[in-house]
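User: Hello, can you help with two protein structures?

Assistant: Certainly.
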Amino acid sequence: MIKDKRNLYTKSRLPLVSYLWYINMSSNKAHSKLANSQTRIRLTREERYQQLTAIAWQIIRNEGTEALTLGRLAEKASVTKPVVYDHFGTRSGLLAALYIEFDNRQTIIMDTAIQQSEPILEKKAAVIASSYINCVLFQGREIPSIIAALAGSPELEKIKREYAKIFVEKCRVILVPYTQSGKMTAASLWAMLGAAETLSYAAANGDITATQAEIELSAIIIAMVERSL
């Protein structure tokens, strides 16, 4: 509404310049929305997988393992459910993927540290202990809850045991050169793994410090090797 010469309010068309500015701004907003949509679509499958697993860790950290469902993950990632189902299939598949990611990270950290350590039993034991404890602490309290969830499914428990066997064998290869007999019993290696899990979870829950967990686990490993002399 504008005043005319008679000081009366009448309807008026929007000035041409203002109208063109309005059209331009509207077009820019639409283009921006389209660009954002296209950006999301341009993620490669591997990039989308990495995005989804990162958000899954966040959900567990902030809301707990029980809150992690494929639907919740899709909502937090701002993607449709079929995208999440295509990557993981089921909730069990998602949990397994997270555990495998954790184990792979643990393997890389440990392998690198072992290669850089001195060929002395005490050094090797310290590296194994610190690598295991620190990797669990890196994920905070999420790892104990994921492992607890894995134990509830035969399929997931099988995955956990397979990776545990790989870890035990890796430790055997690293430590057996420091024994006189050249042998280590499976029982002692599995006992070491049990101690590693218990100590790391205690550290993650704040019952003991990370340093205390590392020192104790290192001592257990050294004692295990010395019994094999």
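That covers the first. Now for the second protein you mentioned:
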Amino acid sequence: MGVVGSHQYPSMESVIYGKPAAEALREEAERLSAKRVYLIASRTLNTTTDEIEKIRKALGDRHAATFDGVPQHTTRDIVTQIARQASEAKADLVVAIGGGSVVDAAKIVLMCMEHEIFEPDGLDGFETTPDRRFGPFRNPKVRMIAIPSTLSGGEYNSGALVTDTSRKLKQIFNHPMMMPRSIILDPAITKYTPEKLWLGSGTRAMDHGIEAICSSRPNVLVDAVCQQGLRYLHHGLLRTKANPDDEAARLSCQLGSWLSAFGLQSRVPMGASHAIGHVLGGTCDVPHYFCTAVMMPSVLRYNRPATETAQQAIAAALGAPGRDASEAFAGFVAELGLPRRLADVGVDEDRFELIGRNAMLSIFTRTNPQPIREPGDVVKILKLAA
């Protein structure tokens, strides 16, 4: 036979685009017969624009409450606080409107509500283990809808990254029903996103696609879809860099983020860029939207011996057929004006050993296509990015 594999379809019902977010959400709330819709929103969108107010007005009496205090890195403290408030509001549908941290918060809030976890240490024992065993979550009775304002793409998978501030570690929590029932793509919502966050989160979306194409367990559908996602993102990000008001380009980026996430949706294992990126955020407070820009060229160089054919496809999707994929991605990052080295984001070599040790706790270190056997292998990658 030669080729052996499988594809898992997520517990997601629809991706909606081409409609204003308020209109699409009202229709979804009606379809789901939701009576108490709890909004977890970006503070910027809630306090400096009228987008959240449009949504509240569209929902009318269905709107239960709004929370807008999610920090840059989602923490146990904040999600348990939100879960208590959402439970007290008798929420029967949670809606995340904002970036990746807001979406991750909403996902884990569903589980905290289900298990009545209202204190940070109540999440102990529910985290996904390094050998990919999920925590003992029940199916949540309350589900969610996501309206993303960035491109990180976390809404397309069933995991959530949550920081344990006491240990300065990002932990993964997973359950198939943490996947949103619906995702609404409205480019108008994204126009308020700061340029660096928009462009950087776009490279984060590319990370999902690149590591899926290079995965140790590839998937023919994922390969094809993720390559198209990279093309959409490559062209769309350059166009929005040149003209931030280009809504067609913004929608192209949103579609690219969706397509690039097909690997995560079907549980194709990711690799070192995800593992190291999680540590840079949780341990070193590097904004998540800069991690890929800084690390991906070095990860591609490290993985080249095991992924030559995949990297040829990646270079072509980045508009550079025949060129080294690492160099093509680094050049693209330079065009976007994003940080390119660890030094640019305040990470010095004296932290490399700690990053290496913490990265070895990640499931994605173990599934990197080029074996990573010890913290020293992670340090080799970090030195390439220094």
